[in-house]
Structures are given as C-alpha cells and as structure tokens.
Amino acid sequence: MEGAVFYATKYGSTAEYADWIGQATGLPVFNVRKDEVDPERFDFLILATPVIYYKLLITDWVQRNMSKFEGKPIIMVTVSGAPPGPKLDAWVGDSLPAEFIAKATHVGLRGRQIPGELSWYDRAMLIIAAWRNPDPVASEEELNGFDYMDKESIAPIVALAKEYQSRKLAVPNANTAA
Ligand SMILES: Cc1cc2nc3c(=O)[nH]c(=O)nc-3n(C[C@H](O)[C@H](O)[C@H](O)COP(=O)(O)O)c2cc1C
C-alpha cells in the first residue's frame, strides 16, 4: 500500500519529526498549510500535529478531509510538551470526533519549546499558563521551555508504516466476480 505523511507545525519540531519519518520510511511528506496535495491519493496516512493550547493544530484540515480517510489505516502522531497519558488523550478527544480517534493508532511524541523563538503573544500566554498550572513540572516547562526531541521515539511509527507498506491492496478477483 502507498502512504504519505501529512503534518502541521507552528515552530518546526513536528516538521522535523515528519521529515525523520519520511527519511526512515521513504514516504512523501507534506505540510497541510503549504502543499496542495489530496490525501485521497494514498492508501494509508500518517498525520502529525503539535498540541497548541490544548488542541491539535491539524484539526481543521482533518475535519475538512474526513470523508477521504474512510476505510484507510491512519497513524495519528501528536507532538506535545506533556507526555502520553490521560491529559494528552483528553486534548485529542476534544479536537477530533470519537469515531475517528477509535479507528486511528495514536502515538504521542514529545517536542521542543524555546522561549526566545516564540511570538510575544505565545510567550505571554505561556507565562500566564505557567502561573496558573498546579503541576510544577509542566509550569516550569511553560516558563523556561524544554527540548525532548528524540529521533529514536519514531520507531513504533516507522515499524507500523513499514507493515502497511508491505500489505497488498485487496483487488477484486475477476474469476470469482459474478
Ligand atoms: C503557544 C504554545 C502552546 C502550547 N500548548 C501546549 C499544550 O496545550 N499542551 C502541551 O502538552 N504542549 C503544548 N505546547 C508545547 C508544544 O506542543 C511543543 O512545543 C511542540 O513541540 C510544538 O510543535 P511545533 O514546533 O511543531 O509547533 C505548546 C507550545 C506553544 C508554543
């Protein structure tokens, strides 16, 4: 089967993960905000997105293309400050329909946040969020940033993508057709 990586990114770390996945699998990689490529063309999809303000950045694009994902394997890759767990699952659940999430395989990766690279608006919002966050680790990261980028962490995504690539598409058999 033929697949592709579609990603959204705000500060580049998800783009970096998408490129690493593309290099490891040979799949083409597209930025949903720049490349006008129809996901319909592919048999399986890897959708990569950061979590920004408790929502997935790719949500609007996924909603617009929902009918094109019907029956296709989907690997949903999130990139966030928070590690995988109930908090991340809740943000994914708030961003996308439950039926879509139930059929997709979700892999949570951890990204990067460099305070000096942020817009003044994002910096101010994250300082306010840090003051209000009862979780001391998350609060410290919102204030001072973090870098959890890890090339090794794409391994389960690459393994699953390679399994999909090796699958043949079910073609109707002419001999048994009525
Ligand atoms: C404005 C802003 C809001 C963020 N909101 C969240 C959030 O709600 N939860 C979380 O776990 N991480 C959050 N993060 C961390 C990002 O998910 C992380 O920095 C990610 O690597 C960004 O991906 P990108 O570089 O592709 O834009 C936020 C980062 C920024 C800059």
Number of helical elements: 7
Alpha-carbon distance between the termini?
A: 26 Å
Extended strand count: 8
Q: Secondary-structure element sequence?
A: EHEEEHEHHEEHHEH
Task: Output the structural class.
Answer: alpha/beta
Average pLDDT score: 95
Give the oligomeric state of the chains in this entry, treating copies of one chain as homo and distinct chains as hetero: single chain
CATH architecture of the largest domain: 3-Layer(aba) Sandwich
Task: Please bin the fraction of helical residues.
Answer: 25-40%
Any idea of the CATH topology of the largest domain? Rossmann fold
The share of residues in extended strands comes to 15-25%
The overall number of domains is 2
**What general outline do the C-alpha atoms trace?**
elongated
Largest sheet entry: 6 strands, mixed
- CATH C-level class of the largest domain: Alpha Beta
Q: Low-confidence segments, ≥5 residues, pLDDT <50?
A: none
